[in-house]
Amino acid sequence: MLLDRYAPYFFNSNFREAGSDAGWEGYRGELIVIEGEVADDQGRRKPPVALFKQATVLAQGDELKLISGSLEELQHWPHFMEKFGVDLTPATIAVMFTVNIPKSFVSTINGCTVVFISLTEGLCWNELIDLAALEKGDFKGQGPTDKIVTVFNALKGNKYKYPEMSVEEALKTTNNAKREVHGAV
What does the angle CA 158 – CA 66 – CA 69 come to, to the nearest 5 degrees? Predict the structure, then answer.
């Protein structure tokens, strides 16, 4: 299964479980994009340098069907590609909520349409549901992985209104935006 290969990169996992239909498996949590350096002689590492936060991953067997989450910096994209890029195919839906880009854009990578959406605040899952034009009632009685399958099916064939741009071009336009976190007062 594909998620077995990703398991070393799981961090702060919410869940990893099979769907109700055979072959589907989902994960929500964070993925390590840049590992921390080795801290001691026993090989233990310092905390990760960069994470793919609020990640949602859906696999069917060894095929990546959906991957979505938050990149703090577009500059982390090459590191993301080193770990997960080989699994991006024309059948994959990839939505990257990126903090430090001024405008959303679409790029084609390995035949996969990757949507980069500027997002400094909010939850990626909620934004993904909005992008899929789904409502709370669409998930009634579903388990966590089945909810991801519902989002995947809703996003299939979706046409995005963002301009086409290469990641290399977009890297020239990044800004210093940071994720806005609101907590208890």
Answer: 100
HEC per residue, 68-117: EEEECCHHHHHHHHHHHHHHCCCCCEEEEEECCCCCCEEEEECCEEEEEE
Q: Could you tell me what percentage of the chain is helix, strand and coil, using 3-state DSSP and rounding each to the nearest 5? A: 30, 35, 40
Give one word for 142, left, alpha or beta, with left for phi > 0 and alpha for psi -120 to 50: beta
Residue 17 CA, distance from chain mean position = 17
Phi/psi-derived region of residue 117, left when phi > 0, alpha when psi is between -120 and 50, beta in every other case:
beta
Residue 57 and residue 26 in contact, taking contact as beta carbons nearer than 8 Å: yes
Over residues 49-97, the pLDDT tens digits come to: 999 999 999 999 999 999 999 999 999 999 999 999 999 999 999 999 9
Which residue in the block uniquely carries the two structure tokens 């699994």? 87
**Please, which residues bridge with residue 52 across strands?**
31, 71
Contact in structure between 75 and 168 (CB atoms under 8 Å): no
The pTM score is 0.92
